[in-house]
Amino acid sequence: MIEFLLELLGEFLLQVLGEALVELGLHSLAEPFRRPPNPWLAALGYGLFGALIGGLSLLIIPHHLISAGFSRIVNLVLTPVAVGVCMACFGAWRARRGDRVLRIDRFSYGYLFALALALVRFTCAA
Fold first, then answer.
1. In the chain, domain spans
2. FRET label pair with 126: which of 30, 31, 81, 117, CA 20 to 30 Å apart?
């Protein structure tokens, strides 16, 4: 049971770290683009970014962090939800500070990013 919780925590931290790095890059790149993009294109972009980060994570950690099959499915369902909640909390924190809030700072885009990352890892990890 402890092993499963540590594996779940590892997957969660991997996805949060990936999103934090993307968010940092997006905040630095977003300033020149004042006009907000189409939300459907943004969703596609976050899905592609998540899949890309998932693929890159396989270069660093090529194996599943969670060993049991059913546990991997639980991770695939729960971890993106938890990451989406974290991103929404980051967005609320940024808004309270008066900082600019990007789309990834909302639950739905954070969830989509994490789901794409998790799906790539779920299907492609050894």
1. 2-10+38-124
2. 81
**How many angstroms separate the CA atoms of 16 and 44, rounded?**
19
Q: What is the pTM of this model?
A: 0.74
Q: What is the pLDDT of residues 55-71, one digit of tens each?
A: 999 999 888 888 778 88
Cα separation of 59 and 28, whole Å? 26
Phi-psi region of 98 (alpha: psi -120 to 50; beta: other; left: phi over 0): left
Alpha-carbon distances, residue 34 vs 31, 56, 109 (angstroms)? 7, 30, 19
- How far, in Å, are 28, 55, 60, 74, 77 from residue 68 at the CA level? 39, 21, 21, 10, 15
3-state SS assignment for residue 65: coil
